[in-house]
């Protein structure tokens, strides 16, 4: 089969995952802090690194494999969606204007507003604060303001020499 793998800076992923399992769950998990979560041997940062590495080393298994960075979607959304569609549906004739309209209608701000209004079918509202939303910040590099210096250094050391194909420094 074809595999499109969307990747995100693993430091942002671990912060997002922390909020997901501690705040946006019917049965939230408990951790003493984000720092404890990052270092957790089962759910923490190493899990993300391992997952990315497994996919990288096995990308020849699927018929076709491609990856796209979340950060590219944020910075160049319409073109990124175009490339995703070209991978999934190589002979599509979807116009740029249709892609642009769909992209703009599903912006993070619009999705966040719908979530806050509880107007998305199938979504459960878990709380009022930003950290309780699925569409929390939708930015790149938010880990810089959510992790302390020791956590950032820990993650950077764990990334050392790994995932070089993704170019996250």
The coarse silhouette is globular
Number of helices, where a helix is a run of at least 4 consecutive DSSP H or I residues: 9
Number of strands: 2
The SSE order reads: EHHHEHHHHHH
- Rg (C-alpha, Å): 18 Å
Task: Give your account of this protein's structure.
By secondary structure, this protein is mainly alpha-helical. It has 9 helices and 2 strands. It has a two-stranded parallel ribbon with strand order 1-2. Helix 5 packs across helix 6. It is globular and about 50 Å long.
Topology:
Elements: E1 2-7, H1 10-23, H2 34-39, H3 45-57, E2 64-69, H4 70-75, H5 77-88, H6 96-105, H7 108-116, H8 143-146, H9 149-159
Parallel strand pairs: 1-2
Helix pairs in contact: 5-6
Protein traits:
single chain, 169 residues, mainly alpha, two-stranded parallel sheet, 9 helices, 2 strands, globular
Quick structural overview:
With 169 residues, this protein is mainly alpha-helical.
